[in-house]
């Protein structure tokens, strides 16, 4: 039985701003779902509706078979970890972790057992007598997770929990959250604007833009088979290169270059003869040698690969990622091609059409 079901959920704030449109998702027991999208796309609002911190305008929320649409937060059996994890400064780490259980007037022994179990999982056993200010940012974030774990909730909700940490710490905390999910085997919903966090943490990603779900799928699905131009450019770093053009006589013709299509691509595009489409290719799927001339503007050697920035036809900025260590000079022209198996085509985004993938 799915643990959390969101059915046709809308959110319209007082004043008329619609933040979420027709959100549908079944979260399986033990699944790690990441809601990702740019700032303002409605992901926190969605999470806060699951938590009960925002009213659900239309639609239904079911948690573990129970209709929770109008239930107050305390009756939903969820625990939320926020970006601002504000620990109580005057309390010890132990007291901070025990706090919600103390409020519920749980038996002292039960509290002790639960806090010690959480401290063990989070490697905080030697920190329990300290005050929050004596801990590092990463340890404080772990305490915030500890406060959620002791409650043994049905569902864990995370709202950008790592965004206050520096880049290095974010990386290590990401791995800790992954391990935590494995250890607890808990159902988790996690909000972030960071596509790397989404790709590395999620069993399934929900990618949102402007209040609407754009695609739901495994990380590899969103990376390899993006549903539309939004997902194609949001997931993957550096982002996918996109070119506007027309399909004509077995070629993709843009103002900047012409690209011969192979048989399989011609077949895929057979209904688009004479129509405007978008060709997308990831930096890592551009190869050296091919029919397109690239004027190099910048060459970045990253050790295991090289990012080459350049222009086509003097205007379109393109990024290529070559697996080799290459050195190009600014102003040099190089020939590039697109891996035909890994070139994407989309309808031209127009009106309600977000530029859906052509397959
Ligand atoms: P995200 O988490 O993706 O950054 P939010 O869910 O916070 O996005 O916000 C989605 C939209 O709803 C934004 O346009 C935001 O301005 C609006 N919004 C958020 N909270 C409120 C509120 N309390 N009242 C009115 N509009 C809000």
Annotation keywords:
359 residues, six-stranded mixed sheet, 9 helices, 25% helix, binds adenosine-5'-diphosphate
Order of strands across the main sheet: 6-7-8-3-9-10
Number of helices: 9
Largest sheet entry: 6 strands, mixed
What is the string of SSEs from the N terminus onward?
Answer: EEEHEEEHHHEHEHEEHHEEEHEEEEEEE
Share in β-strands: 25-35%
Question: How far apart lie the N and C ends?
Answer: 33 Å
Low-confidence stretches: none
What does this structure look like?
This protein is α+β, with helices and mostly antiparallel strands. Helices cover 25% and strands 34% of the residues. It contains nine helices and 20 strands. The chain has helices spanning 43-51, 93-103, 108-122, 137-149, 167-184, 195-201, 219-224, 229-234, 263-268; strands at residues 4-12, 18-27, 32-36, 58-63, 66-67, 78-81, 155-159, 187-192, 204-209, 212-217, 241-248, 251-253, 258-260, 276-281, 286-301, 306-312, 316-322, 333-338, 343-347, 357-358. A six-stranded mixed β-sheet has the order 6-7-8-3-9-10, with helices on both faces. The longest helix has 18 residues, at 167-184. The chain is globular. The mean pLDDT is 94. Adenosine-5'-diphosphate (ADP) binds next to helix 1.
């Amino acid at each position: 039985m799915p643990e959390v079901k969101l059915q046709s959920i809308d959110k319209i704030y007082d004043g008329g701003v619609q933040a979420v449109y027709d959100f549908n998702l079944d979260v399986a027991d033990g699944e790690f779902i990441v809601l990702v999208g740019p700032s303002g796309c409605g992901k926190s609002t969605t999470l806060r509706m699951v938590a009960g911190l925002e009213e659900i305008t239309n639609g239904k929320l079911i948690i573990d078979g129970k209709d929770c649409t109008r239930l107050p937060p305390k009756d939903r059996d969820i625990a939320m970890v926020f970006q601002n994890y504000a620990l109580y400064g005057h309390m010890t780490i132990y007291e901070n972790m025990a706090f919600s259980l103390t409020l519920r007037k749980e038996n002292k022994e039960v509290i002790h057992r639960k806090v010690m179990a959480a401290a063990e999982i989070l490697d905080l056993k030697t920190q329990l007598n300290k005050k929050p200010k004596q801990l590092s940012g990463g340890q404080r974030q772990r305490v915030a997770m500890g406060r959620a774990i002791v409650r043994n909730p049905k569902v864990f909700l995370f709202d950008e929990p790592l965004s206050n940490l520096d880049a290095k710490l974010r990386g290590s905390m990401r791995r800790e959250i992954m391990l935590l999910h494995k250890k607890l085997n808990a159902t988790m919903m996690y909000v972030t604007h960071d596509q790397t966090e989404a790709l590395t943490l999620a069993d399934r990603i929900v990618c949102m833009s402007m209040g609407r779900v754009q695609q739901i799928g495994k990380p590899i699905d969103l990376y390899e088979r993006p549903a539309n131009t939004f997902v194609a450019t949001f997931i993957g770093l550096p982002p996918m290169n996109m070119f506007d053009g027309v399909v004509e006589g077995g070629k993709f013709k843009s103002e900047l270059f012409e690209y011969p299509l192979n048989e399989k691509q011609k077949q895929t595009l057979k209904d688009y003869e004479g129509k405007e489409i978008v060709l997308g290719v990831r930096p890592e799927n551009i190869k050296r040698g091919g029919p397109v001339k690239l004027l190099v503007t910048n060459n970045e050697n990253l050790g295991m690969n090289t990012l080459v920035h350049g222009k086509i036809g003097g205007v379109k900025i393109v990024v290529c990622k070559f697996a080799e260590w290459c050195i190009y000079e600014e102003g040099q022209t190089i020939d590039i091609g697109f891996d035909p198996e890994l070139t994407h085509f989309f309808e031209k985004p127009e009106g309600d059409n977000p530029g859906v993938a052509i397959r």
